[in-house]
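SAMPLE LOG
Freezer: B-3
Tube label: C17
Construct: single chain, 353 aa
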Amino acid sequence: MEIKRDHILSLEIENESDVGVCRRKAVNTAVKMGFDEVKTGEIAILVSELVTNVLKHGGGKGKIVICQLEDNNNKKAIEFWCCDSGNGISNIKNAIQDGYSEKSTLGLGLGTIQRFSDELEINPVSSAKVKEIFSIENHDFKTCIRCLKWVPAKIWIGLNHKLLPGAASRPKPGEQVNGDAFLINHTGPDTTIISVIDGLGHGSQAHIASHLAKEQLLLKQDLPVDELIKFVHNSIRGTRGVTIALALVNTRINKMSFCGIGNIEGYIMTPQGKINLLSYGGICGHNMRTPRVFENNFRPGDSVCFYSDGITTRWSPEDIDWSKPPQTNTELILNQYSRPNDDATVLIVRYAS
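STRUCTURE (predicted):
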């Protein structure tokens, strides 16, 4: 494959202030190339992690090269080469797993870099020409990380207007961060991913686990729901782990594909009554059974409800007026039925009739 590289920017890494400088340069490049706000934010995190790894683990000195790449199919990407003068990575397989660290850190850096990259190579075998272009051939760098992110060929920006969503969530009283997370992601005019995620326990470690899981759902949103849960499971190893309820709603064919791990409660409320959604046991990120997908009809007038175990079971669907806006009902359930000793989240999506 013929690769063209241009707009090459080479930046030295020597102190903490270089994190912000490199991040801003990368963001400016990404915006000019046509990345949307979400992808540009991911690039900002990716570059921050690359430069921070050099300062913390790479001998405190190195270089990052930012460039625009184009293949022979006119597909464009932003590419990064980040090299450092440290002692190298002793175990690459372990290093890219969340939770692994050779120093007293959370060990999330390389895992985050991997998740936000479409391609990742550590110490790639590169031609002398590439090294010459990047002016890295004369440096005594021990480790080089190459990663890139492709400019999306087609970006969906809009809503599935047939669905009316509502969500309410709060942390355990006294905690500063929420160990629960939720997602309503319109992936097309007729398709929407919805999810509630509960990091085990509460506090900062539960928050990290649930929000890393949410990040994975956004990264691989085109996967079938069972494969998506497997991807999340493998990507958040090293965290506390999560329980998760995940559904793909397709309003073109009036179907819902559901997959769940752990004790997130879920059901579909129809004019004829309640349909329970079955989750399998386990902890996503630690040990879980093979996910199974359950297909259900989801028609105009139906509502789907997910809630974490911070909501008590001392209520029933018959207590709710499902004709009211979903946001009104989620706030009602959260305010009246949440436990005082846990994070709590309710999500309701109604198919407008």
